[in-house]
Amino acid sequence: MTDKAQIAEQARTISALWHRMERARKRIEVQQGMIVWLQARVSELEAQQTPEARIAALFKEAGE
After folding, report:
1. CA dist., res. 28 & res. 55, Å (int)
2. What is the pLDDT of residue 17?
3. pLDDT of 13
4. pLDDT at residue 63, rounded to an integer
5. Quick one: three-class SS letters along the chain?
6. Helices 3-48 and 51-63 meet at what angle, rounded to 10?
7. How far apart are CA 58 and CA 53, in angstroms?
8. What does the alpha-carbon distance between residue 2 and residue 8 come to, in Å, rounded to a whole number?
9. What is the C-alpha to C-alpha distance for residues 30 and 47, in angstroms, rounded to an integer?
10. For the chain, which ranges sit under pLDDT 70?
11. What is the sign, positive or negative, of the torsion defined by CA atoms of 24, 26, 32, 37?
């Protein structure tokens, strides 16, 4: 293989790897957003289960 052919092949390989890395990065960003939302939702649900929150919900139901 000539030097030029080897360089061209390496350039194709690097380009393919770079594109694969970019697709993975975009997927990671989407998944990270989902994780952040899920963590916030879990915190919200846990907050609803504290004794204070449960009592407040009972009073709210009784007032309706």
Report:
1. 40
2. 98
3. 98
4. 79
5. CCHHHHHHHHHHHHHHHHHHHHHHHHHHHHHHHHHHHHHHHHHHHHHHCCHHHHHHHHHHHHHC
6. 60
7. 9
8. 10
9. 26
10. none
11. negative
Encoded tokens for 45: 């649900």
Q: Please give the C-alpha separations between residue 53 and each of 10, 37, 47, 60, in angstroms, as whole numbers.
A: 61, 21, 7, 10
Give the tokens for residue 63: 């007032």
pLDDT attached to residue 48: 92
* CA distances in angstroms from 63 to 3, 20, 31, 58, listed in the order given: 83, 58, 41, 9
Q: Residue 13, CB half-sphere, CA atoms under 13 Å: how many?
A: 6
Q: Report which residue type is found at 42.
A: V
Which token pair is 42?
């879990």
Question: What pLDDT score was predicted for residue 12?
Answer: 98
